[in-house]
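lol ok so funny story. i was supposed to be doing the assay writeup but got distracted and ended up predicting the structure for this chain instead. priorities right. anyway since i did it might as well share w the group, maybe its usefull for someone
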Amino acid sequence: MKLVLHGYFRSGTTYRVRLALNWKGLDYDYVPVNLVAGGQREAAYLATNPQGLVPALEAGGDILTQSPAILEWIEETWPDRPLLPADPTLRARVRAFAAVIGCDIHPVQNLRILKAVGGDQGVQSDAAKAWGKHWIEAGYDALETLAADAPGQNGFLFTDAPTMAEIYLIPQMLNARRFGVDLSAYPRLLAVEEACNALPEFQRALPENQPDAG
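and the output, tada:
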């Protein structure tokens, strides 16, 4: 099955999908969509994803959108190197950890929301930066607590390898730095990031290693 990922190098949701594809050892083509230049609103891309958001994943004759759905599809289609633990309780904990980011942190500090908060000055306004920083810190306070008793090994959260929790966390760490969050307050999350970014699959997914990185 031919896979084609449409996304933007700095998009956290696209970054999640890159991580999952790399971890599963899947080959895919990459089509950049420049969010800053408005590529997501062009007719050609809207024909791929009518919502005008990234990522979109072409899979054979189908087009999948929304990173949570794409990630679950990848996990179900290629179960080797699993991103969800076998134990049902741990699976729920992984999904809950991911949801703190995917439902409560990222949506309120993405480009569309920040432009609305920032008014005429857009995402560079003090209001937009303060908004993003506030919600990231609130979420990270919860994540650090959730991670405190996570039973993972080798530096990871819930098993001895990355799971969906890490797939969501690593892109969000980039956003946290962009908004000036003091990450020294979150030592467990920093340790997880270090363990993940030592892996070649995660290194290949770094934003600066993508063909559309400026």
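The chain has two domains: 3-81, 88-201. The chain is about 50% helix and 10% strand.
back to the writeup now i swear
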